[in-house]
């Protein structure tokens, strides 16, 4: 997979819009308009998108589980939420 294809995959993950992602990745408007199906069907691009989406899902799941654990502890009186704690954990 070349650099432009990698940029396309990164942009597609952010926006979900193939045309805009192709333009931002450096493809011409004509190419983006006519060949978006080919880009999205490219095995390397699909694998890159799937891998990154799985990683994002994994990270979001972990954050949700951590948040639920903190809230459960607070509800049970096992801990208090300190000011800014939730923000620090996200960074």
TrEMBL record:
<keyword id="KW-1188">Viral release from host cell</keyword>
<protein>
    <submittedName>
        <fullName>Terminase small subunit domain protein</fullName>
    </submittedName>
</protein>
<dbReference type="GO" id="GO:0051276">
    <property type="term" value="P:chromosome organization"/>
</dbReference>
<dbReference type="InterPro" id="IPR038713">
    <property type="entry name" value="Terminase_Gp1_N_sf"/>
</dbReference>
<dbReference type="InterPro" id="IPR052404">
    <property type="entry name" value="SPP1-like_terminase"/>
</dbReference>
<keyword id="KW-0231">Viral genome packaging</keyword>
<dbReference type="InterPro" id="IPR005335">
    <property type="entry name" value="Terminase_ssu"/>
</dbReference>
<dbReference type="Pfam" id="PF03592">
    <property type="entry name" value="Terminase_2"/>
</dbReference>
């Amino acid at each position: 997979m070349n650099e432009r294809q990698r940029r396309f995959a990164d942009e597609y993950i952010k926006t979900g819009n193939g045309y805009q992602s192709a333009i931002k990745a450096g493809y011409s408007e004509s190419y983006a308009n006519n060949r978006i199906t080919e880009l999205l069907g490219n095995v390397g691009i699909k694998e890159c998108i799937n891998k990154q989406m799985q990683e994002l899902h994994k990270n979001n799941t972990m954050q949700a589980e951590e948040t639920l654990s903190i809230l459960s502890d607070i509800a049970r009186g096992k801990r208090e939420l300190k000011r800014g704690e939730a923000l620090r954990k996200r960074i």
